[in-house]
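Model: You mentioned two targets. I'll fold them one after the other.
Researcher: Yes, keep them separate.
Model: Target one:
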Amino acid sequence: MITALDSSVLLDVFGADPVYGARSQQALRSAIAQGRLVACEVVWAEVAGFFASPADTCAAMERLGVDFSAITLETALEASKAWKTYRKQGGKRTRVAADFLIGAHALSQADRLLTRDQGFYRSYFKRLSVLDPT
């Protein structure tokens, strides 16, 4: 079982979020017990902003057992379909393309997505299995 991770869950853990930190940490433990954890370059870039250096980012992700999983061309094109649907439905620009790339990556290159932003992903990636730590 491959679980793709969203930035929200990782930042809950790395930042010891008082509301979601423990639940996200438990969800990560459960996911790793069932298989592999991956994060695409978008998530790595978002999470890296939390750390002092790229080396610190890599060390933290390695401690959690998170593998880097690059987005393929097919995945990027899948994300563009969801982005177009969102815009055609009058979507405001509060969502950026990064969210669509994360969702498409999980759909195409993993078995499920661990995120706290379940409603968005379920709306635009109907076939995606979404786990919510909350």
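Model: Target two:
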Amino acid sequence: MTKPMKPALNRRVAWMHAMGIALCLGIAPTAHAFKDPMDIPAIIAPKAAKALMLNATAQGSKVVLVGERGIVLYRDFAAGAEAGSGAKDADGRVWTQAKVPVSINLTSIRFSSPNVAWAVGHDGVVLKSTDGAQSWVRVFDGNKANEQVVAAAKKKMDDMQARFDAAKPAEQAKLEAELEAVQFAFEDAEAGARFGPARPMLDVWFKDDNQGWVVGSYGQIFETKDSGASWTLIADRLNNPDFRHYNGLYGDSTGLLLIAGEAGRVYRSTNFGQSWERLDTGYNGHFYGTAVTRNDKGEATVYAYGFSGNVYRLGPGAAAWWKLQSPTKESFVQSFTQGTTVMLVDQKGRLARTDTAGTGLSLVSQAEGKPVTGMAVVGQSVVLSGQGGPRVLDLPR
């Protein structure tokens, strides 16, 4: 397993990156002793709307984007294009920058209700807002995550050691490989913790304001049932012994949760995360997200999408996944549903849509230009996150 950078190097790179971002965003950096980016509030920057944004979501007429150095931007599309004061994007639309307590890259954002929002990012950071994304507080981070990961690995090792010690010699020979595996996993967890909170969270979803989940690199998955006051590692519920990354998380009111992961894996729960099954799609690359449509009977069709334009489909009652013919070789990074169809955006900003049968996929817009990381839909517009800040397109019909 690849190890993160050592703390000193990691912090030094972060400081150098911070200076570069400050200059890019029109802020004169000041000389000071290094501080952990987890303890430095995001800089309110005149050019924040032209920074790298890594994800987007919509709540009513409001669109919120998260990105590098803890930048969170929000805008009410019911207002005029230049209403209010704030940072202007490349098309002159005004965005307001939120108050954020960290300068960590943020990777995903979701609302659990009109005023309550959640964001996750590097260093295992989880943020919460109760005022519609205007201000945020940190409720979890990689230090706390590491404590639970190490404790879980130690318990598994101790349990396996006790089982091994109690076994007869012939049985011990069979258990030796398992014991070595859990010992290695414990050593790996300890090594990761020594490097600091370096493992990112990559996605978040909440069923309501109290219960939600965050997922990330190296098989991290945590659950809260008290609105973020406490978090519990539930990695032992999933079949992921090699600690593959969890890249995307989907949930809905039926109890369905889906995780898109490495090695073509999709993990499914139908009871809000109490139990999980691993679905091997036959694909060996990365999935970045999933989407779901439902027929008149409420039966789900699941789409998994990701690297190099790959899209796989699992229809109601199907025994195997079916690969759609893709019109692009660029990775699909985010999606949304329109009735029985799914709209996906690739990293060049091209929109593709499935047909109503869910068996065909075609482009409905051309390349946008700069790299794209995600999208949100508001009214008849699509807001893209990516390099150079937010960009707005008309929603294809």
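Researcher: Noted. Anything on target two?
Model: Residues 14 and 79 are 37 Å apart (CA to CA).
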